[in-house]
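Q: I'm building a small set of examples for a reading group on sequence design. Run inverse folding on the following structure and report the sequence directly after it, with nothing in between.
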């Protein structure tokens, strides 16, 4: 009697790890699905809002996966310390290079060394500002590793050692990188095929073409004396498209002159043209 052939894992993917895990734990992962690994002192913060709505549904379906990596177990001493006083003096504490390095080495297991395919990102106010183009770049890779900072920051040497890319959500300071990490992951995951369900929705959103999104309306047709613009009820798709384009350009020019100048430069247009937009 011949032994039965082992069953194929089908659409599930097995990832390399230094720690054994049960394949039945957590949601399945579609083979080749995009993955986010998050090094954090607060792993319970994940998935957070990422587990809700369409991103949560896609997570349950295995269209993408999330692996929080607790930084604390890599700490040293009785209290698993992960930080120390800043060299040269000063207020606050700094995450140690050796501790963070161990966590990033753990996160690197089973991932490509090519940073184009798998960037390692530190959420930092001094980083390059996150935008839609960056989200598209991240979505086109195999996944990414995010390092959530705390205290006064991270020892510079570990950022250099691991080729870490610094990214900022904007010119403000958060208590830690967890909220920023969730925002970055959300903006990236929704660009992955099948996550939103409607590909056109992602293409028409703000920033997709360098413009803010045009105004949106729905029923009732008349509300509090305010009516939906007649052009949107005309059924004339070409005129509707022109109206939407014009409104997107007007809003961008009025509210985000920086985006408007960049848009005009990319399309060979004068940013001061058509003052009536």
């Amino acid at each position: 009697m011949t032994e039965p052939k082992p069953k194929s894992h089908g659409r599930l993917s097995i990832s390399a790890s230094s720690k054994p895990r049960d394949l039945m734990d957590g949601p399945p992962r579609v083979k080749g699905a995009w993955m986010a690994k998050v090094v954090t002192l607060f792993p319970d913060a994940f998935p957070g809002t990422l587990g809700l709505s369409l991103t949560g549904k896609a997570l349950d379906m295995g269209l993408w996966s999330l692996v929080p990596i607790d930084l604390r177990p890599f700490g040293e001493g009785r209290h698993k310390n992960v930080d120390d006083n800043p060299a040269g003096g000063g207020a606050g504490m700094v995450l140690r290079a050796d501790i963070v390095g161990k966590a990033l080495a753990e996160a690197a297991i089973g991932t490509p060394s090519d940073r184009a395919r798998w960037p390692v990102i530190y959420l930092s106010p001094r980083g390059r500002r996150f935008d839609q183009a960056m989200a598209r770049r991240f979505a086109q890779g195999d996944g990414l590793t995010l390092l959530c900072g705390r205290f006064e920051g991270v020892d510079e040497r570990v950022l250099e050692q691991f080729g870490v890319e610094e990214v900022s959500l904007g010119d403000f300071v958060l208590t830690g990188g967890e909220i920023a990490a969730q925002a970055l992951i959300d903006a990236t995951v929704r660009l992955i095929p099948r996550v939103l369900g409607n590909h056109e929705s992602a293409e028409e959103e703000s920033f997709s073409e360098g413009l803010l999104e045009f105004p949106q309306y729905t029923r009732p047709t008349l509300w509090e004396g305010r009516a939906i613009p007649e052009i949107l009820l005309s059924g004339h798709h070409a005129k509707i498209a022109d109206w939407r384009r014009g409104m997107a350009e007007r809003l961008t020019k009025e509210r985000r002159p920086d985006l408007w100048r960049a848009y005009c430069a990319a399309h060979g247009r004068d940013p001061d043209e058509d003052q009536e937009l």
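DSSP finds eight helices and nine strands in the chain.
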